[in-house]
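User: Fold this one for me? It's Oxidoreductase.
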Amino acid sequence: MNQAAPAAPLPPPLNLPPVPIGRIESPWITDRGREIEGKVRELHSLIREDAEESERIAALTPRVLEALDGAGIYKMTQPIEWGGYALGARDLVEIISALGEADGSAGWAAFVGVGIKNLLCLESEAIEEVRIDTAGWVGPAIVGASVFATNVGRGRKVDGGWEVTGRWAFGSGCKHAKWALVGVEYDPSTHPGSGRGVVLLQRPQYEILDDWNVMGLSGTGSNSLRVAEPVFVPGHRFLDLAEYPLRFQHVRDHYAGPAYQQRGLALLISASLADMAIALGMARGALKEFGIQAAKRKPFSLPYPTVADMASAQVAAGKALAMTNVAATTIESVADQLDARTAAGLDFSPEEESEISLNLAWAANMCEEAINLLQKTIGSSTMALSNPIQRFVRDVRVLTSHGAIRVDPQAEQNGRRVVGLEPFPMFGGAVPERRAEPQKEGHRP
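Assistant: Here's what I get for Oxidoreductase.
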């Protein structure tokens, strides 16, 4: 009977030089961006420590607000001409996602600062008023509330300006800002235009309602603003909504820095990226917390020493890591492309902007799925309000409920193009372009 020949011995290992490895960083991350991100990471303990209190008071705590301001968060997107940094999209993604790792509300506070770009579309007189009034201010110079929403306030044209009343929801950061930009509708038969516009309000002109009682992102202070009795707004503090697209295109003619060299649709995508970076940061924060807690917790029923020893927990962690990494690749690649196009003086087509909005919404929802998976895998111990994982679960659910991040409307809009139907006319991939019909004057609650 033949026997198999013995296997030949393995050759001795070759004495090869080590293969160099390393990560090549995006060329669009700046030294200033790295500096601010580093300062943010040094604040993680403070932000986590105050997260419960921020939820209780429905706003950032004073010491977190001051720390974020000191780190340069509210200068990130301010014009260089104001003493700001005018950072590009990739810098914003890195910084805001680092904040989101600590707390979603802190990340949202940084996102609020992007709204100053909306102000810079107004008349120069209005912009200069805000610049002078907010010099040295701690916190956001301005917040937006229902700027492009379907339910807005009411404007009536009068000599020299507008009389404004109304109620505006989701005024994120309003407790810490000096000005507010809000949407209004008006009768186009009394003033030429689209019937929709925005007005700039000073802090004494509106009240902040105590109505931000929500399941997540409680620390963002996204209260409603109200003007119960008509207030006068000078004409230079008004802009018709139909003028925004063209005004966005011309912001770059007046301000330096990557944030303001972005063209019209790139500006909108940059704001979306800042929003999605919060979800990305929260997914990364949940992964880190999962690793810490899984190594300490014992399973409820299985005989493993810790949750970390469970194969099912390892699979969950791997899946969550993959979802987070895929989301990061999507978000970061869009940011890099945006900065590259900005440097080349290029914009995005409406079709590209619409598709990117869908991709970013999908990425944010992947982050939510990852966080939910990690929370369920750890189990009931995450229910304690002191546990950051439950806060990530609640915060990311609120974030992905935002109208601009809901996947199905974005998918329908892009799907229409795929099957050969005309997409709906949209502004920023979220708000329909429409011309208001003449309306009767009267009280608006």
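One thing worth pointing out: The mean pLDDT is 92.
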